[in-house]
Amino acid sequence: MNQRDYLLSNRRWRIYISVFPPKAKDEATMHIDQYSGEILADYLYDNYEPLGKLMSWGITVHKGLEYGLANQFIGLFVCLGIMRLIIEGLILWWERKPEGHFVHQN
User: Fold this and answer.
1) Distance of alpha carbon 94 from the chain centroid
2) Theoretical Cys-Cys bridge with 22: which of 5, 11, 43, 65, CB 3.0 to 4.6 Å?
3) How far apart are CA 103 and CA 94, in angstroms?
């Protein structure tokens, strides 16, 4: 019986420990039997499927952890760029809006 079958067939409570360090390649999850302390499963980043690795990497990049300060500056510039687009869009709309658009007419 492999670890997955054991986890699915055994109805005892388990303790799950997950570690999410700054680098995606250092992630780990452990399943521990609460009564015996036996490690039922030890799942590392290397065990992830390609899509799981991509998602894990994407999450750490999105949080600004994967590449340090450079990643955080890129995220800041993207955020400021989106804010600029919103503000400029409002300004362009305001300049081109029809006359009396906000005036209450009887």
Assistant:
1) 36
2) 65
3) 14
Compute the C-alpha angle 51/57/59, nearest 5°: 105
Closest CA to 4 of 48, 32, 40, 45: 40
For tokens 């600029």, what's the residue? Answer: 84
Give per-residue pLDDT as tens, 51-106: 989 999 999 998 888 898 999 999 999 999 999 999 999 999 888 887 777 666 66
Tokens, residue 2:
């492999």
- Beta-carbon contacts of residue 57 (< 8 Å; ≥ 6 apart): 24, 66
Q: Give the amino acid at 100.
A: G
pTM over 0.70: no
Q: What 3-state DSSP class applies to 60?
A: helix
69 residue type, one letter? L
Which residues on adjacent β-strands are paired with residue 14? Answer: 33
Count of alpha carbons within 13 angstroms of residue 13, beta-carbon side = 3
C-alpha to C-alpha distance for 64 and 40, rounded to whole angstroms: 32
